[in-house]
Specification:
The chain has 294 residues and is mainly alpha-helical. It is 68% helix and 0% strand.
């Protein structure tokens, strides 16, 4: 157990000290909190662990830069290097920027959510999860805290990507309801992929393997309708591109962001996201008790 983890636990756990026979204080001893004992509760625990995860995130400068700058750089490269070479709309950079923007935003969410796998794995391997047994919080609040922190980080990264897109020429005819719908769909994908990465962090043996297990999810946008129309791909690849999770999510988000007609397959995006959430939560419920026994 590192000194940092000990300090964090001390900040959220009430001190327990006992008096000796002569009135002297005895050393503080961790005590298991009975299941029915009044504790800080789910909401307080969720707040504490969400703030803890956010503090760790913003101290890790490399992760912050990776989550924000990499998607922005990809957007600029695709737009200014390939924009006029792609026959999208009238062939202008502005049209291609509008085409790739949803894929870039979802790619940013993927890179940001992958950090969740690393921090959850660190909590398991450093013994932080074991120490939760001595605290008056439901143990699952640490995972919920990582999830909330991931949502905050990735929505901020998405806002940065959209801001840069507007700065380099993106314009839209979409109204406020459509833009809110696009943000809601992106947020649902962030929730889904965060739940998956949290599960990978639980079952992996190290932070490195946790990040590696989810690598395939980060490349799904590149084999979808995100950067090129599916019909321009080789025939053997079109089937996969059309039926993988990212294509319906990107198509729906693109229509909402640009203010065009939403495709009839829009329902596939939310359905894939909810499927990922349900599967990841169920598997986490199976695995988590083996990591932390209350």
């Amino acid at each position: 157990m590192t000194s940092t983890s000990t300090d964090e636990l001390a900040a959220v756990r009430p001190a327990r000290q006992h008096q000796g026979a002569e009135g002297a204080e005895m050393p503080q001893t961790p005590t298991r909190v009975p299941p029915g004992a009044p504790g800080a509760g789910l909401l307080t625990g969720l707040t504490q662990f969400s703030l803890r995860s956010l503090r760790h995130s913003f101290r890790d400068v490399e992760s912050v830069l990776m989550a924000v700058l990499l998607p922005v750089m990809l957007m600029l490269i695709f737009t200014f290097v390939m924009g006029e070479a792609m026959a999208i709309g009238d062939g202008s950079r502005a049209d291609y920027l509008a085409f790739v923007l949803p894929a870039i935003a979802l790619t940013a969410a993927g890179f940001g959510a992958s950090h969740t796998a690393v921090v959850v794995s660190n909590d398991v391997t450093t013994g932080f999860m074991d120490r939760l047994r001595t605290m008056p919080f439901p143990a699952v609040t640490v995972l919920l805290g990582h999830t909330v922190a991931s949502m905050v980080r990735n929505l901020l990264a998405t806002a940065v990507v959209l801001g840069v897109a507007f700065a380099v020429g993106f314009r839209t005819d979409a109204g406020l309801p459509q833009l809110l719908g696009a943000v809601g769909l992106i947020a649902l994908w962030i929730l889904a992929i965060t739940c998956v990465f949290a599960l990978l962090g639980l079952i992996s043996g190290s932070a490195e393997s946790a990040n590696g297990y989810g690598f395939i999810l980060l490349f799904l946008p590149y084999v979808s309708s995100g950067f090129a129309p599916v019909e321009t791909m080789p025939g053997w690849l079109q089937g996969f591109a059309q039926h993988q999770p990212m294509t319906p999510i990107i198509d729906a988000a693109r229509a909402l962001i640009t203010g065009t007609e939403v495709p009839s397959t829009w329902w596939g995006g939310p359905l894939w996201c909810l499927g990922f959430v349900i599967l990841a939560v169920w598997l986490t419920a199976v695995v988590f008790p083996r990591k932390v026994t209350r």
